[in-house]
Design brief:
There is one protein chain. This protein has helices at about 5-10, 15-20, 25-50, 55-70, 80-85, 140-155; strands spanning about 110-115, 120-125, 160-170, 180-190, 195-200, 205-215. By secondary structure, the protein is α+β, with helices and mostly antiparallel strands. The chain has one domain (about 5-45, about 75-215): Thiol Ester Dehydrase, Chain A, CATH 3.10.129. A hairpin with a 2-residue loop joins β1 and β2. The protein is globular, with a radius of gyration of 19 Å. It binds dodecyl-COA (DCC). Dodecyl-COA (DCC) binds near residues 147, 163, 191 and 215.
Amino acid sequence: MNEPLDGSALSQYFLLPTDASEAPVTGIWAERRRLASIMRTVIEHLTVADTPESELREAADTLQHLAAQLGAHPRRRKRDDIADTATPMDKHALIDFSPLIGLSNPISPPLELTLDGNTLRGRLRFGTAYEGPPGCAHGGCIAAVFDELLGYAQSLTSLPGMTGTLTIRYRVPTPLHTELHCEARVQRISGRKIFCVGRLYAGETLCAEADGVFLASR
Ligand SMILES: CCCCCCCCCCCC(=O)SCCNC(=O)CCNC(=O)[C@H](O)C(C)(C)COP(=O)(O)OP(=O)(O)OC[C@H]1O[C@@H](n2cnc3c(N)ncnc32)[C@H](O)[C@@H]1OP(=O)(O)O
């Protein structure tokens, strides 16, 4: 299969995320996401606020209590969430704990994805926890965004695979606390190799570009 994919070929694999974008998320997933969102805010405050020692101690004690409380429950059965809730009613059920796009994972920025024809578009904002050079995003975090973005784009084909090679060209420093947008698409498929390209922008400024080769499973 060497021909490039067109938008319709891609979109048939994108039913969950696009069709369900307006569906309300309630119950346990809504609470997981709310908790993750508050944890993101805590992380941001921890990294920027000049908090007195006594308040840090108090916050750590509170979180220690919370960690013990949450840790007292049995682990979910592996992939329980997918089997039970991967329906168009919950667009993120497949991916809610992803480190990049998972709304139930506090370490995700999160990166928000939409499909536009044959282009996968993303939006995100890096907080201080993702700082590399002063005021700028860490290069490794940018690479992770591209891995997810290009990885997601190729996962929408009929032969998804794993990242083999990811090459990033960092053009200019990527600012923190700034609305960023990115895009990726499958460029071509050759045998088991899926070639993808992507770009990351701050406004009109191209911050970084990526090329990825993904290897479909045998
Ligand atoms: C809706 C749900 C959304 C879900 C959306 C979720 C998106 C998440 C995206 C995250 C993606 C990841 O992070 S994945 C995690 C990071 N990646 C990994 O851990 C992969 C680790 N590496 C591997 O498992 C392996 O090395 C593979 C699978 C990449 C390749 O092994 P293999 O399958 O045995 O390959 P092999 O037969 O030797 O070679 C086949 C052909 O590919 C070439 N090839 C082999 N390795 C590579 C390579 N690394 N980069 C380039 N090309 C390679 C060979 O030269 C050969 O070309 P020729 O001679 O045929 O021309």
